[in-house]
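Let's practice the habit of predicting before peeking. Look at the sequence and jot down your guess about where helices and strands might fall. Then scroll down.
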Amino acid sequence: MAEFSQEAVRVFKALAEPTRYEMLRMLLKCSNGELSCREFEKVFDLSKPAMSHHYRVLENAGLVSSRKEGPYVYYQLDRERLERFLPGFAQVHK
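Done guessing? Here is the structure:
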């Protein structure tokens, strides 16, 4: 399978799950461009292992990057990558 096709499959699989889709929408709408793991965990009633799985899938798809600050991890959306595979996504979800 071509490299672009493999990347597209990872991106679309990541977005196919409603929790991850909503996480990306939340990142699009936040004013400073990033959200902490705690902010996500307040919204989603999921266990820490389940949330960790969602973070990992989004990172493996290249849709988010993360940085650790103190006890929290902050996630930032890679808007360019998202728009590469889903042109107009940001416009639809403003």
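How did you do? The mean pLDDT is 91.
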